[in-house]
Design goal:
Elements (H helix, E strand, L loop, with lengths): L1 H26 L5 H7 L1 E4 L3 E8 L2 E15 L2 H4 L4 H15 L13 H16 L4 E13 H5 L12 E4 L14
Antiparallel strand pairs: 1-3, 2-3, 3-4, 4-5
Helix pairs in contact: 4-5
Length: 178
């Protein structure tokens, strides 16, 4: 009789545990593959880079840029060449060499194409899939006249041409409005 009662209790315990775990698994949130991928990435903050626009043998203005990257954790520290110098060289190639941006038609600038070009070229130069995503935080243009103040006084307020509004950096605090 004791064996029969113990067997019944054991069957009840196994049944309750099975029902509990099946309900838990059924109601557990599905893991998104993109979230798992993002958890394996780290944010590598870029530095401000000034790229001169040269035409007819003289400087006509400057691109002011800040490009940051999402990279796999630990890969940024494994790089032999500093990321800032590679980014600067790549921006010179795209903005000056290929003339990716036509200052007279900034509205037609394709940000997605610009990002994919940077990502593709950086990964080729680094020799692997180092850069997972490119974040354009700032891309402005200042003409030479705006920098010099137009009349030579240097007292004019500089207003850069906004080509791209920056992406919010992951886990970055919002900046206060002025």
């Amino acid at each position: 009789m004791i064996k029969l009662v113990l067997t019944g209790l054991w069957v009840c315990a196994v049944t309750l545990a099975s029902v509990y775990f099946s309900v838990e698994m059924a109601t557990a949130p599905a893991t998104n593959p993109d979230d798992a991928k993002k958890a394996q990435q780290e944010f590598v903050k870029g530095e401000s880079i000034n790229v001169p626009v040269i035409a007819n043998g003289q400087v006509n203005g400057y691109f002011i840029t800040r490009i940051s990257f999402m990279m796999e954790k630990g890969k940024a520290s494994q790089l032999q060449t500093p990321l800032t110098e590679l980014t600067t060289d790549e921006l010179y190639s795209l903005l000056v060499g290929n003339k990716a941006i036509d200052i007279s038609h900034t509205a037609s600038f394709d940000v997605a194409s610009f990002r994919s070009d940077i990502k593709k070229n950086m990964n080729e130069r680094l020799g692997g899939d180092y850069v997972a995503d490119v974040l354009v935080e700032q891309l402005d243009f200042l003409s030479k006249e705006e920098i010099n103040g137009g009349d030579g006084s240097g007292k004019r307020t500089v207003k850069p041409v906004k080509i791209v509004q920056g992406d919010a950096a992951p886990d970055a605090e919002p900046k206060p409005a002025h």
